[in-house]
Amino acid sequence: MLINVKYILTTHDMNLMPHDDIPEYVIVGKSNVGKSTFINSITNIKKLAYVSGKPGKTRAISLFDVGGNFRLVDIPGYGYAKVSFKQKEMFADMIDTYLSKRKNIKKIILLIDCRRGITKDDREMMKYIVYHQLSFSVIGTKLDKINQSKKIEFLRNVKKELNTVPLMYSSLKKNNIKDIIKIFNF
Ligand SMILES: Nc1nc2c(ncn2[C@@H]2O[C@H](COP(=O)(O)OP(=O)(O)OP(=O)(O)O)[C@@H](O)[C@H]2O)c(=O)[nH]1
Ligand SMILES: [Mg+2]
What is the pTM of this model? Predict the structure, then answer.
């Protein structure tokens, strides 16, 4: 579990983010994959990041300080069909600006719903990560919703398609939390 976590701010504007050298770990993934819930789960603070049953809830970039050592970053998810085209473009622009310009980014943590598998948007995100030469980890979320054979299938697909071995996690059950925390090598 991560301790001493504090909310900093939520904004669309990179100029308002802290100007320092503190590393940032960015949680990315499809809308509704469980990014905000993941932040709440690994920090053990129920309402730190905003969660909703409806996808498309996180609409700006939120920063959280972890003991003054690093930051967690919650960003809006991609691939949510019900937001307008204009809104989608606005989100994409904001995320692209943040991911391509922000010098503080240490690692991208790409969450993929292991029940739904890898989507087209996940593949696009992976291409983006590779193109920008960003360091990354992949985590399969909602592990509590699948059985063992589905899990094996997911692991195989991620290895084959994204050429990496994902960690598997459930924000409810907190499986492998120790390995998850190791991602933040502060
Ligand atoms: N069963 C189960 N449900 C989960 C898990 N993680 C998240 N959820 C549920 O999935 C839904 C979406 O979670 P969020 O954390 O809001 O997802 P998000 O990726 O932040 O979504 P956006 O902000 O829309 O991009 C909520 O109803 C969560 O309770 C998990 O590990 N297991
Ligand atoms: Mg969210």
Answer: 0.94
Does ligand 1 come within 6 angstroms of the Cβ of 40?
no
Average pLDDT across the chain, whole number: 92
| Domain interval for residue 117 | 5-182
Query: Encoding tokens for residue 161?
Result: 């398609």
**Cα-to-centroid distance, 56 and ligand 2 (Å):** 7
Residue 96 token pair: 């692209």
Find out whether 43 and 1 touch, Cβ atoms under 8 Å.
yes
Q: Which residues of 21-54 are buried (b: 16+ CB within 10 A; e: fewer)?
A: eebbbbbbbbbbbbbbbbbbbbbebeebbebeee
Residue nearest to atom 10 of ligand 1 (CA): 34
The enclosing domain of 79 has a CATH number of 3.40.50.300
Tell me the average pLDDT across 68-93.
80
Decide whether any atom of ligand 1 lies within 6 Å of the 76 Cβ: yes
pLDDT category of residue 176 using cuts at 50, 70 and 90: confident
| 68-84 mean pLDDT | 83
Give how far the C-alpha of residue 25 lies from the chain's centroid of Cα atoms, to the nearest Å.
8
Ligand nearest to the CA of 113: 1
pLDDT score for 20: 98
Domain count, the chain: 1
The Cα–Cα gap between 104 and 173 comes to 31
